[in-house]
Each structure stands twice: as structure tokens, then as C-alpha cells.
Amino acid sequence: MAKQYETVIGLEVHVELATRTKIFCGCSTAFGGEPNTHTCPVCTGMPGSLPVLNRQVLEYAVAVGLATNCTISRYCKFDRKNYFYPDNPQNYQISQLYLPICQKGRVEIDSEDGKKFVGIHEIHMEEDAGKLIHDEWDDCSLVDFNRSGVPLIEIVSEPDMRSANEVIAYLEKLRMIIQYLGASDCKLQEGSMRADVNLSIREVGAKEFGTRTEMKNLNSFRAIARAIEGERERQIDLLEEGKKVVQETRRWDDNRGESYAMRSKEDAQDYRYFPDPDLVPIVLDDAFLEAVREKQPEFREDKMRRYKEEFDIPDYDIEIITESKHMADLFEATVALGSQPKKVSNWLMGETLRLLKEKSMDPEEVGFSPENLAKLILLVDAKAINGSVAKEVFEVMFAQDIDPEKYVEEHGLKTVNDEGALRRTVEEVIAKNPQSVEDYRNGKEKAIGFLVGQTMKAMKGKADPGMVNKLLKELL
Amino acid sequence: MELLNMTAVELAAAIRKKEVTVLEATKTVLSQIEEKEDTYHCYVTVDKEGALANALAVQEEINRGLKSPLAGVPVAIKDNMCTEGLLTTCSSKILGNFIPTFSSEAVLNLQRAGAVILGKTNMDEFAMGSTTETSAFGVTKNPWNKDHVPGGSSGGSAAAVAASECFYALGSDTGGSIRQPASFCGVVGLKPTYGTVSRYGLIAYGSSLDQIGPLCKDVTDCATVMEVISSHDAKDSTSVKRNDTDFTSALKEDVKGMRIGLPKDYFGEGLDPEVKGAVLKAAKVLREKGAVVEEFDLSLVEYAIPTYYTIAAAEASSNLERFDGIKYGYRTERYEGLHNMYKKSRSEGFGPEVKRRIMLGSFVLSSGYYDAYYLKALKVKALIKKAFDEAFAKYDVILGPVAPTTAPKLGESLSDPIKMYLGDIYTISINLAGLPGLSMPCGIDSKGLPIGLQLIGDCFQEKKLIRTAYTYEKARGAFGKKEDGAHGKAI
Amino acid sequence: MANIISDETIEYVGILAKLELSGEEKEQAKKDMGRMLDYIDKLGELDTKGVEPMSHVFPVKNVFREDVVTNGDIREDILKNAPGKKDGMFVVPRTFE
């Protein structure tokens, strides 16, 4: 009988923090600048420059630590990780090895076998590297240090996951927590969240771990799932052939669907960590931790519980809306303005999700204000516009956050409630469509639908369909 | 008084009184440089045009009312401090063409006080050495005897002051690099308490040990310069906020009741008898002035050198990684691929002493050795600090020699690194413990070379050092070089 | 000499430190490093059990900057000393295989 293997997975997740400036200097972290325009002597490793820690980085790191049930170190330091690479301007990265800011946490995830905990070994603060661009023309590489010094936290899990599904569940959970905190936007594609997968296999029932490999360059959930499958297969094949798994770092090539070892004889992987003498220790007192704790938002579980009590909307709606803090905030703010919860939820669950999907955007990117959504709901409630006009207006509002009242006014989209005008139009439609009129009178109920449509068309959509229906029936 | 014989404070006063213009002072010192540089080679770069232009600008400011005790006085800067637009080499080929785009904070403090920068002084490459012979740009000679070294690593700064090629200079001290050359060249040097002068813009050697300080003609200049360059700098995380940097207030002739301790280990085997004699004589002078002087046991002296070399080399190996041929400095001409470019640029760009320390530092941090070497050294450092804490519970000032001998002959030291390292025995524990240390001349040996006296204080106690030094200086009388009569009269 | 430094060690440290020594330099480096380590071994005489390693002399702690952008575009300055530059970037030997 073939052997049964178990996959053992631990994750190193790098998250780019949403600070305005870099971790050790006053350069902007904004995306999209021309190369090296967001740099200074500190983040380009100029001789004589010195780092000074951004307070916000510490606050975010502690916030994430508290939200993942970590113990926060009351005394922590930065260490230098020494290795030569052109994207690393000092040829050492300022990171934390000996005394990381957070340790021993855990988060709960939903796995195939129900709820389970994934342990967090530690969270540490560090600086990001610059970007290397290959120049085909001159057969060289070019270095852009705009990203150099952007603050990161690295969240190191325990090897507690057993499948790609658990890994994805864990990542989604982390992303949710961090987005709720506002500490990062956590976009895998854009690299503001990156996961390295440590994976080993062992026979089911074995106590010891197998030799693990580390997989890098995974920039989507799909790539992560594929890489885990691929690496699991590769390691099983090796063991079945009687070979050994080598502890190494491998790079996943998602196009080819395979990984390859990143090894070089010039790469000793001996980082010579030691405390950075240019930075002083961080000593945290109760007051600091209390201040960060007070700023913690209501997390999803609590929010879901509260929504169930406060709002009369389906559980399914609650689940979807609370998946994103931004959506939840939008929901609550709109309701607070007096809109009926179910109606708000309908707009978020229906048109908002549809447009997000269509434009492949994240819920965090929804740009319209609660005020405008409330106004739109009010317009519909007051029958000032009909359903299809409302959807049309919503689409514009979704794109540009316009004031729906003004927009309806300016574009003349108000429903015509003048019965005399409507009656005249209905009479014209009846006169122009004798065949349908006859069909209707001969008992073809459906024919009235065509006549309603013709009337709406003549009214350029600005009529209440119910009223049109009523008038038609009356005049026929 | 002849202009070149003036101290910095005297010159500034003469400028204020309009007895001399900044331009005259600058021109005079530039012609002294022109005359003496061939012999002593104190400078890597002399910025003649910059200094002349600056002299006019500073004169304007003085005329408009700039009040500063150093306004208009020409100064020399050690070549490991960044100076905007002015070549800064660390006396290394690897930075042979490096022109910084910003100035170090200490230099900016001087410029705000109206200093005229003459140029950049020679040094041991990356401040690694005790003779200024490891410079990639030639050796500096001792103005007292040009067959001897000026000491190091701030040898160019010390020699420039001694040869009147400037009125004062800035140096840096990681293990004695201000105090020892000051001693060898017969000038006054002060290494302040760690964190007193900003390290921003100082090209790092051993970051936890490096401090910038002045090299001057006398104690008054030294206190005055200290007052100007000390500042709390938000750009340097290790900068300390102090509100007691009015160092000139300590220029008092008064050591009555001052408790001065002489560590027995500083006067034992290896100390040249002439040096010993002169230092003890200075101690007696202070006793006569009312100080309580006694011997005591300062433990762990012999462990300071191995501790220092482990920590300094480790930090240096990391600090010097940024010199890789990519962002600035030297890049080798021919290479195959990235790693070969790194290796060739660095191997060709660094000199032997720097390579030696980088290799040692990389080794003591490497996997499997970190605990045994680096961590052990950090623990011994804690013990050394404790030994000083205990000593300063009993004494205000510790007095001893700066170096075991006076300046050795050129070429004598480099052949045996350990022997050279041993020459730092009285200076380096001060850096390990972050303490202030002052070096000043206290005699001349039979070879005609100056002997240095070292005063060590507890953290933040520079004023006690200045008061003691000032009192001794008054008792000792003027000290200067016979042959040139460069500053003051010979004792 | 108690510490014998092997060719492999010198080779290894050379990889870490990105230094390439000539044959003669290598021999000298082996000797120097061996002697220095012998000397450093002297620290082993001291009992440091229970001693906290001291990286900073003073209890200076919690030095922060606020999260405010203070730096503008100084690209020209940043690239000024570069041995190789192109399109506003530093030129390095090819890093991709």
C-alpha cells in the first residue's frame, strides 16, 4: 500500500505598513514615483547617514501583535542582518532577530475539520529592499531605492498548517485583521503582503518533522496553492525515489508551475546578526500598550455578533459586509444617517459587489460616501426616481462619488408624477399600437407589458412603472 | 603677537576687535599650509578657494553682528566627516572620489558659529590605525620630528594644529584616535562622553564607540570648541540631550578637594620611564594645587584591548559593507558578474589594515562564533563599565598616561599589529565605557618629543576634566614647539 | 598559536565580507587572524556568567521620529557619486539569470 503523507506548513508573511514615511527616514512611501525620487542619504546607505525609528511603525506592529494575541516585548531592539545584494543599500538589512517586538500569538481559522488555531511564533519590524529592474538593452540591472526602507512587519507562524486551504484561510484571516487595523492594505498582487512558504512532509502519524524548504515569490492565493501542491509532490517524489529533501530556498515560477533552487556559492546564508549600534532599545510601558489597545477597532467576530442583535438583515449579508472593515463602516454610517438597514445592505450586496467584481477592485477601494448612498436611498423611497434610474445613478456615484440629488436634478431624471402628462403619453401609445391594444382586449395579458415598455421609453424612463400600468388598464 | 601663534579664541577676539580680518587670518594660515605641507602632509584636501570665499562671507556676518567665540577662525576637519561639496575620502582609495551632498552635524555647528573650513586632514584609513600610516594618500609626519609618526588615527588633525596649519581641528576617537595623536603632537584633545557630539555625517568605524571631538592649542580653545560642536541631534538616535554644555564655565583654576585617582595598572610594565616620570610630575602639580591624589586598582585593564578589537572589528565589518562599488566610490574596472565586482572593488579599494579588521569582524560574528567572541566581548564591556563606575564613586578624575611611549618612528609600528594595538591600552577602555577623556602635553622626552597626560572623567563630567586641565595648564605654563615657536613658548 | 585558521575559513570569511585575497595576503590573513583570536581568547579567563551583554553604554531608549514626510526629491544628489547610472537609477552587473 502506498504511504500516506502529511504536509506541514509554516508561513513567513511580510506586510508593508501603511505609514506615510519610511521606517528610518522622512521619505514618502507613496507608490508610483519616478525611480529614486523618494530617497535620501539614509535609505540609500550614504556614508555618515543614521537611522531614526518612525513611531507609527512601532504602533502598527504592536497593534497587529495585540490583535493576534501575541505577547508584546517590553524591551526590544533592532539587529543588522548582513548580506550583499544591490537592492540592499547598506548591504545589511535592519531587522529584529534576538528581541522581536511580538511573540507567541495565535489566530483562529476555519479549516476543513472545523475551527483551529495557527500559532504565531513572532512578529518583527524590518525595512524593505529597493527594486531591481533588468535592462535588456545594456545587459545590466538598474536599482531604484524608492521602496528601500519602506516599513514591513514579518509575521512568522508556527508550522501548524496542513493544507493549501488552511494556508489561504490563515492568510485571509491575517489580511482581515490587518485591514481592520488600517495597518496595511495587504495586496498580494502589489506586494504589500507577501508570503514565503516553509513546507515539509512526513508520513502520517510520524512525530518528527521532515526537512523543510522555503518557497519565495508567491504573489497570489492561486500561486500559493499551486506552489504548495507542487512542492508537496516534489518532496514526495524525492522520498519515494529514496532521495533526501535538501533544506534550501526555492523560487516559484508560476508560469511554468515549478520551483527551482536559489543557490549560489557566493551565498553563504550566514547573516551575522548583531544589535544595530545606531539604534537604541525600545522600552514599552503599560501606558503605551493601553493607548494602542484603546485604538483597536471592533474586530469582525464582535461586529457580526452585534449586527445580528442590532440590524434586521440576513446572516449572509452580515458575513459579506463584515468581510471588509470599509464596507462595514460604510454600512453603519449610512444606517446612522437614517436609511433602513436592509436597503443599505441591498445596495452593498447587490450593485456594489457587482461593480467591484466587474472592475476587479477590492472592497477597501469603494469610494462613495455614506451621505450619498443615504440620499440615493431617500430618492428611491420618495419615488423621486425609479429602480432602473437609481441603478444608473449608483453606477456614476460608485465611480465618482457624485451627489445623487444634484445629479438627478441636473440630468432631469426625476420621475414624472404629473398624471395629466402621463395620461397624454399613454393615450398616444395606445393610439400608435392598435395591434397590441387588440391583443390585450382579446385576452393576451402579456401585451400590456409591451405597452408599458413603450410608455416608459416615450417618458425616457422617468415614470413610475406602477402608475403607467394602472393608467393603461384604466384607458383600455 | 604673531598671528599664527594665536589660539583660536585669541584670534577670534582679534577679529572682533578688527585688529585682523578673517581674510588675513585665512590667507596667513593658507600660506603656512603651502610652506609646510610638503614636509608634514597633514591634509588630504586643502580647499583654498572655498576657504577664501568663505572668509569673506564670514567677515560679512561678523560685521552684521554674528556673535560667536570662534567666528572667523580657520579650522581643519578630519577626512571622515562629510562636508558638502568637498571631497571626503576617509583616507581610503574606496572613497577616493566621494563628494558628499550633505555636511556632518558637527561641521554644520561650526559653520553656524562662523568657522572657515580649510580642508580635510589625513588619517588612518577609516580611522583604523594609530599612526596615520595606513592612509591611502601618504603618511603624515610629526611636526616635532619628521622622522616620527603623528599618531592616529586623527594624525593629520593633530599635526595640523601642532604645525600651525590651522588654529584648531576636529578629530574622531573610537579607541584613542583624538587623545593619542594629541599626545604625540603636543596639543590638547578631548573625546567627549558618547552621545555629546552628533555622529550624523561621521563615516562610521565602530558606531558604539565613535565620538567627534576637538584638537586644540590649549584647554580654553578645547572647551570653547566643545561648546560649539555639542548638540542634541534628532538625526542621531544615540545623541544625548544635555543642558550642561557650557563647558567654558569650567575654565577655572581650582582643584581644591578634587579627588584624583591614579590607576596602578596604568603605571606598570610597558610604560616608558620618561613618560611615567612626566605624568607623575603632573599629578604632583595638581596635588600642590589642592587636589587629593592617590593610587588605586582599576581592574580589567588588560581585557580592554581584546574586548575593543572584537566589538570595533565586528561593527566595522558591517559598517563598511556599504562600500560596494554601486552607489559611490571606487568600482573596479574589469569584473565578471556582480559578486566578482563586489570582491574586486573592495579588495582593491581597501588597504591591508582595513581588510584585516573586516575579516576579523566578519569572523567573530559568523555562525558558531557569535556567542564565544562577540557576545562575550559585550559582557566584558559591561564589567569594564562597572569597574569605572566603582572608580568614579571614589574619584572625580582618573589621571594617567595617554600612551606607553612618545611617538614612534615612521614605519616601526605596522609590521606587528598586536604590538600596535597594545599602544592603545590606556585609551580604549574609555570608549568602551563611553567616558570623556582629555589629553594634554605634560613634558618633553629626551628625544625632544611631547609627552601626553590623560584625564578621564565619569560620563557627562567633561567640566571636571576641563577644570583640572585648565588648572594644570596654568601651573605648567605655555607649551609649544621649540623649533617653529608655533604656539606659545617652549617650557 | 592556539587558533589555526584554515584555508577554508579564510575562503568562507572572504565570501561573507566580499574580499578576495591574493595567495600572499591569504597566508598573512591566516597568521593575523590566528594571533588576534589567541589574544581575544584571553576574555575566556573572565567569568561572565549572569552578566548582561552591554551594547549601549547609556540607558537612552525610545528615540522616535513622527510619521511626517520631510524629504523631497533629491535624486540628482543621490546619484551624483554613482560609478554607473541610467534612467535615474544605479547601474549594477546583471542580477537575473
UniProtKB/TrEMBL annotation, chain A:
InterPro entries the UniProt entry points to: Asn/Gln-tRNA_amidoTrfase_suB/E (IPR017959), Asn/Gln-tRNA_Trfase_suB/E_cat (IPR006075), Asn/Gln_amidotransferase (IPR018027), Asn/Gln_tRNA_amidoTrase-B-like (IPR003789), GatB (IPR004413), GatB_C_1 (IPR042114), GatB_Yqey_C_2 (IPR023168), Gln-tRNA_amidoTrfase_suB_CS (IPR017958)
Oligomeric form and interacting partners: Heterotrimer of A, B and C subunits.
Organism encoding this protein: Parablautia muri
Domain Asn/Gln amidotransferase: 329-476
Role according to the record: Allows the formation of correctly charged Asn-tRNA(Asn) or Gln-tRNA(Gln) through the transamidation of misacylated Asp-tRNA(Asn) or Glu-tRNA(Gln) in organisms which lack either or both of asparaginyl-tRNA or glutaminyl-tRNA synthetases. The reaction takes place in the presence of glutamine and ATP through an activated phospho-Asp-tRNA(Asn) or phospho-Glu-tRNA(Gln).
Pfam families: GatB_N, GatB_Yqey
Family: Belongs to the GatB/GatE family. GatB subfamily.
EC number: 6.3.5.-
Keywords linked to the UniProt accession: ATP-binding, Ligase, Nucleotide-binding, Protein biosynthesis
GO terms of molecular function: ATP binding; glutaminyl-tRNA synthase (glutamine-hydrolyzing) activity
GO process annotations (BP): glutaminyl-tRNAGln biosynthesis via transamidation; translation
Catalytic activity: L-aspartyl-tRNA(Asn) + L-glutamine + ATP + H2O = L-asparaginyl-tRNA(Asn) + L-glutamate + ADP + phosphate + 2 H(+); L-glutamyl-tRNA(Gln) + L-glutamine + ATP + H2O = L-glutaminyl-tRNA(Gln) + L-glutamate + ADP + phosphate + H(+)
Signal in keyword set: no
UniProt-recorded name of the protein: Aspartyl/glutamyl-tRNA(Asn/Gln) amidotransferase subunit B
Enzyme class: ligase
Signal peptide boundaries: none
TrEMBL record, chain B:
EC assignment: 6.3.5.7
Protein name: Glutamyl-tRNA(Gln) amidotransferase subunit A
Gene Ontology cellular component annotations, sorted alphabetically: glutamyl-tRNA(Gln) amidotransferase complex
Keyword presence, GTP-binding: no
Gene: gatA
GO molecular function, one term: glutaminyl-tRNA synthase (glutamine-hydrolyzing) activity
Keywords: ATP-binding, Ligase, Nucleotide-binding, Protein biosynthesis
Subunit structure: Heterotrimer of A, B and C subunits.
Main function: Allows the formation of correctly charged Gln-tRNA(Gln) through the transamidation of misacylated Glu-tRNA(Gln) in organisms which lack glutaminyl-tRNA synthetase. The reaction takes place in the presence of glutamine and ATP through an activated gamma-phospho-Glu-tRNA(Gln).
Keyword Protein biosynthesis: yes
One GO-annotated biological process of the protein: translation
UniProtKB/TrEMBL annotation, chain C:
Enzyme Commission numbers on file: 6.3.5.-
Biological processes, Gene Ontology terms: glutaminyl-tRNAGln biosynthesis via transamidation; regulation of translational fidelity; translation
Top-level taxon in the UniProt lineage: Bacteria
Entry's Gene Ontology molecular function annotations: ATP binding; glutaminyl-tRNA synthase (glutamine-hydrolyzing) activity
Reaction catalysed by this enzyme: L-aspartyl-tRNA(Asn) + L-glutamine + ATP + H2O = L-asparaginyl-tRNA(Asn) + L-glutamate + ADP + phosphate + 2 H(+); L-glutamyl-tRNA(Gln) + L-glutamine + ATP + H2O = L-glutaminyl-tRNA(Gln) + L-glutamate + ADP + phosphate + H(+)
InterPro entries xref list: Asp/Glu-ADT_sf_sub_c, GatC
ATP-binding recorded as keyword: yes
Keywords: ATP-binding, Ligase, Nucleotide-binding, Protein biosynthesis
Task performed by this protein: Allows the formation of correctly charged Asn-tRNA(Asn) or Gln-tRNA(Gln) through the transamidation of misacylated Asp-tRNA(Asn) or Glu-tRNA(Gln) in organisms which lack either or both of asparaginyl-tRNA or glutaminyl-tRNA synthetases. The reaction takes place in the presence of glutamine and ATP through an activated phospho-Asp-tRNA(Asn) or phospho-Glu-tRNA(Gln).
Subunit structure: Heterotrimer of A, B and C subunits.
Family per similarity comment: Belongs to the GatC family.
Protein name: Aspartyl/glutamyl-tRNA(Asn/Gln) amidotransferase subunit C
Source organism (scientific name): Parablautia muri
